[in-house]
Design a protein that fits this description.
With about 260 residues, the protein is mostly beta strands. The strands form five sheets. Strands 1-2-3-4 form a four-stranded antiparallel β-sheet, with no helix packed on it. About 15% of the residues lie in helices and about 50% in strands. The longest helix has 30 residues.
Length: about 260
């Protein structure tokens, strides 16, 4: 009888161990990211020590066959062995450009990915890892833009930052605006602002009269709806004295 009890307790003990091991294994599997993928591996000196660091851009798609990447990040291993991580917002076709934008002699990391929404918007982020310290440099502030519909199928656009003003002829949209109730026989039915969209994206450019690179930002101004594009605002920025300085604004109306 004693032997039978010992055998039963032993069997129960072994089964318990297997159950615990099984649960532990399943928990470990659950913690592993699903569908993790490597987008690109860059070899660049981003710390300023003259040696190349390894920057691996990784992502997890929304689903196995989806183009949208719900999670994107960069794993960075410096030449000195330090490991850093930068988390980015999700999107499509992410990439990192390496360019010295704060003019300290060390390449910064300019990340961008398409949002996939209307207006051709991109998510953009800018970081420096000088001396192995991760710092978010930030991007230029939004422009101060006043944009309104005016009588006689016109629109006025003013850039407060540079005291520039423009008048845009919208008579080719008369039929659409009348149908939408914005105008009646050329008279504006009520005060109405144009749609000033956020920055679509930034790109590095040469800065006139300045050493090194600056940023060029693009914004769309639309009429009654996003697809009703009226024109594009291009702003030029240069990083100096720890902040972005506006150098110029150019306006181009859609034909």
């Amino acid at each position: 009888m004693r032997k039978e009890l010992l055998f039963a307790f032993g069997a129960f003990f072994v089964m318990s161990l297997h159950a615990i091991a099984g649960n532990f294994s399943s928990e470990q599997v659950e913690k592993q990211p699903e569908n993790e993928m490597t987008i690109h591996v860059y070899k660049k000196d981003v710390t300023g020590d003259g040696k190349k660091d390894s920057i691996t851009l990784k992502a997890i798609p929304f689903s196995p066959d989806a183009l949208f990447l719900k999670q994107i990040w960069a794993d960075i291993k410096t030449s000195e062995g330090s490991e850093l991580r930068i988390d980015y917002e999700g999107g499509y076709q992410p990439r990192i450009q390496f360019v010295d934008l704060n003019h300290d002699g060390i390449k910064d990391m300019l990340y961008s990915s398409a949002t996939g929404g209307s207006g051709g918007l991109y998510t953009v982020a800018l970081h420096t890892l000088a001396e192995n310290k991760l710092v978010d440099i930030g991007l230029p502030e939004p422009l101060t833009i006043q944009a309104q519909f005016q009588d006689d199928y016109q629109a006025s656009i003013s850039f407060t930052d540079t005291n520039q003003s423009y008048t845009v002829d919208l008579r080719d949209r008369k039929e659409d605006y009348d149908r939408l109730g914005i105008y009646t026989d050329g008279t504006l039915n009520e005060p109405m602002e144009l749609m000033v969209l956020p920055y679509a994206f930034f790109e590095p450019v040469n800065s006139k009269g300045k050493p090194g690179k600056g940023l060029k930002g693009y914004q769309q101004i639309s009429g009654a709806y996003k697809a009703d594009g009226i024109g594009t605002v291009t702003s030029y920025w240069y990083y100096e004295e720890d902040r972005w300085n506006l150098m110029d604004i150019k306006w181009k109306a859609n034909k």
